[in-house]
Specification:
seven-stranded mixed sheet, Purple Acid Phosphatase, chain A, domain 2, single chain, globular, alpha/beta, 2 domains, 478 residues
């Protein structure tokens, strides 16, 4: 049994008013980003209990850490600074490095990082040489890369604090893979937006364009770099840059609050997709298509989309998301592993993602993976409904030296505040016994004692307050 070596958090949505980790003014829906929220403070206290001070632990931030669609950049940055002050406090630092994996709501930070990386590369190329096309992804096996991609924005926020000016922070996008035991064991992290068909809408449209008249002809497996290159502008435009768009950004915030209406959601997506293709610089594959044909294809694709996955509360994975997970695992992810590992697929694979805001643990059997894959979802930290949704909640994913994984399920929404209890979970195949790592973490977590009980009390109050605030805003804007 190894000690905790990696801690994974996702979907913090720092800066958003409905995030439990963004501080609110007392008796107000307005944020107060100069202070950490009570939930953030208690979460860090819980982590300190497990990790201690001065251990060699890496923090993996698995996407949607900053909210760049529903709030302004400065609000998100200040909330992130509060988090940094708690986890990297001088003399009480609980992490030695950070690896950042952008999601859809902070995708623009990846754009800044990759453009900075590319221009640094351009500086090394002679003017008489041909510049290569800019790349859209990183390698996934980058943990020990001597020249990591540095996240431009987050690194500068961290280095504002003099003791942290040399603090190591790196980026991997859209996948990060940890490898141990001579390549036999692997844990892969991905934010999860590519699991949902909405986030590869442009690829879907392209495939329909080229498959017209040949519906039974299979498309070749898409590579991860193509998936991102075809969809990055779509993701960036709506889910990651609207917060800087003045009054338009505020209107989008209202729309997000009312996304429970599938009809309105489809109408807006249709208009956005049509404008992106016909009025901006169209993708090469759409340039020669008649506008009416493209509009017809968009309408077919959009019609398949009801609510976003986080608003589908009946199951931890809707039919669309479950199908998307299988497609991502069996397509772009598997192809990237093979490309970087020379067709050497690790026999023991664990997959960790977030995005859906519904935490779970499950053993799944994907095509051409040597064994069943242990799948963990880290949930989210936002309140998106006026009524409690029991499947919604946040988890911290813990990984030890040997890449054993356990999920610290911090909360699930509930009507009764007494039901907000921290639990430790593990993905197991039927008949498999719990790992020593899971058993050890479980022995360290007493849900009825502090700091765990204080955290549960704080999160129960915060969920109730944000649900009431959401109800008030919906009524005010109706």
């Amino acid at each position: 049994m190894g000690a905790i070596r990696y801690v994974c958090l996702s979907d913090m949505h720092l800066g958003a008013k409905n995030s439990l980790l963004t501080n609110l003014k007392i008796a107000s829906t307005d944020t107060d980003p100069l202070k950490p929220s009570p939930v953030m403070e208690q979460l860090v206290e819980c982590l300190k209990t497990l990790i201690g001070i001065g251990e060699d632990v890496t923090l993996i931030l698995n996407g949607d850490i900053l909210e760049l669609a529903l709030t302004t950049d400065n609000e998100a940055y200040m909330a992130f600074e509060r988090f940094i002050e708690l986890i990297l406090k001088q003399g009480e630092q609980i992490f030695k490095r950070i690896i950042y994996i952008p999601g859809n709501h902070d995708h623009h930070l990846w754009e800044l990082a990759r453009e900075t990386q590319y221009m640094n590369f351009v500086d090394t190329v002679r003017t008489e040489d041909v510049l290569p096309i800019p790349w859209h992804v990183t390698n996934m096996f980058v943990e020990n890369d001597p020249n990591p991609v540095v996240p431009f924005t987050l690194s500068r926020l961290v280095r504002k604090y003099p003791p942290l000016k040399d603090f190591p922070i790196a980026t991997a996008y859209p996948n990060l893979a940890l490898l141990k035991n001579g390549g036999q064991k692997c844990v892969i992290f991905h934010h999860g937006h590519f699991v949902e068909s909405l986030y590869h809408l442009m690829t879907t449209i392209k495939n329909l364009v080229f498959n017209r008249g040949k519906p039974n002809q299979p498309m070749p497996p898409i590579q991860i770099w193509d998936l991102e290159a075809e969809n990055f502008a779509w993701i960036d435009f709506f889910w990651s840059t609207m917060g800087r768009s003045g009054d338009v950004g505020k209107d989008i915030g209202i729309f997000y609050e009312k996304m429970q209406d599938p009809g309105g959601f489809k109408k807006l997506l249709y208009n956005l997709a049509e404008n992106l293709i016909s009025e901006a610089n169209p993708p090469w594959w759409a340039a020669g298509a008649e506008k009416e044909v493209v509009k017809w294809i968009i309408s077919i694709v959009i019609d398949r989309i009801g609510k976003t996955e986080n608003l589908q509360t009946e199951k931890v994975l809707s039919q669309d998301a479950e199908k998307g997970l299988w497609a991502y695992m069996n397509g772009p992810l598997r192809e990237q592993i093979r490309s970087e590992r020379g067709d050497n697929m690790p026999p023991d694979v664990t997959f960790v993602f977030g995005h859906t805001h519904k935490s779970f643990e499950e053993d799944m059997n994907f095509k051409e993976y040597p064994q069943w894959v242990k799948v963990y979802n880290s949930g989210g930290w936002v309140v998106e409904s006026v009524d409690p949704q029991p499947l919604h909640g946040g988890a911290v994913i813990l990984v030890d030296d040997d890449l054993n994984v356990a999920s610290l399920r911090m909360y699930n929404e509930d009507l009764d505040s007494l039901n907000y209890l921290v639990k430790v979970e593990e993905s197991l195949h039927p008949g498999e016994t719990p790992s020593p790592f899971y058993s050890n973490i479980r022995s360290l977590v007493n849900p009825s004692a502090d700091p765990w009980r204080k955290f549960s009390d704080a999160v129960a109050r915060a969920v109730h307050v944000r649900a009431q605030n959401l109800k008030a805003e919906i009524y005010e804007k109706t």
